[in-house]
Design brief:
Elements lengths: L1 E5 L3 H13 L6 E5 L2 H7 L7 E5 L8 H8 L7 E5 L4 H9 L4 E4 L5 H68 L5 H28 L2 H5 L2 H16 L2 E7 L7 H22 L3 E9 L2 E8 L6 H7 L3 H12 L3 E6 L5 E8 L2
Helix pairs in contact: 5-6, 8-9, 9-11
Length: 346
Amino acid sequence: MDILLIEDNENDVFLFNEYLRLIGLSDSNVTALSTSLEVRELLKNETFDLAFLDLTLPDTTGIQSFESLMSCSPKFPIIVLTGLEDQETAKEIIKSGAQDYLVKGVYQPKDLMKSIEYSIERHQWYMDRYKMERNYVNAIIKGAETERTRIARDLHDGVVQTLTISLLTLDLLIKKSQDINEEYSALMDKTRKHLKNSVDEVRNIAHSLVPNAFQNIGMKLALNELMEDIRSLASIKVDFEYQIDSDQISDDKYMTIYRVMQEVFNNMIKHAQATHCLVSMTQQENIVNILIKDNGCGFDLSTIKKTKSTFGINNIDSRIKLLNGTCILKSKKGEGTSYEISFPMC
């Protein structure tokens, strides 16, 4: 068993290894690290079967230590090591995703064995449930995208064509009706404008459902067009940086990112009162990193969660999880909002 032990006290590291020997797990491969920074660097390339996390580290304490570990999207169970005074914090961390906790200086070898068995079993149950939920959400999103495509095609091939023919017919009628009075002429001109506006509006709806640039040219152009829409319609200055190897990302992942950005910008336009936004898409080996940051009014995330007005935020989070990625939302009143998104290309 490969075990990650995050502990800065050498005596506690020694005691932990001794307890492993006493419960028959001396052949386990234990990697001991003392800071959250070391852990984040290691987990970029390594994974483990189990992790033990001391909450009090040189660079993080309490729930910050757990959040730092979770930012690496670990796929293994986590057992918290805590002192007597931090048990309430440990219980809160379990609600956030840890499997169990042990009180340092109190737990015995048998407690360690029970915690390991329980945590692995609980984590496996969670992963099986997560896979089922993920498949279910993925099926819903794919069904929705299929329906969007059908509606967009029907709008383009049906409604747009009918309106266009009506517009051409009206143009022909106007040309042949030279002797009509000014009142009728003004009425026909007004009708023509309404028809033209209807054609443009339906085309825009079809484009928002399934962007033509994405279908025909690629994600970069589709996102550029989305940024242009934001600049023109919402008067928000958008700085866009795109440095991605497009050939390595599937169309499904691209469409997911497009929908996420649509959701982020919708939230920004409705609530942020922003005048400037930075969008950065970069690639670090096999990882795509996206930063979306605005200079808007910001908000208190804890207050939003209490009011349960988080449908858009939850929608973004669900889509990113389908990519096996992470989304860190940061916001503070008067200081804007940022989304830090990361996901593997393959």
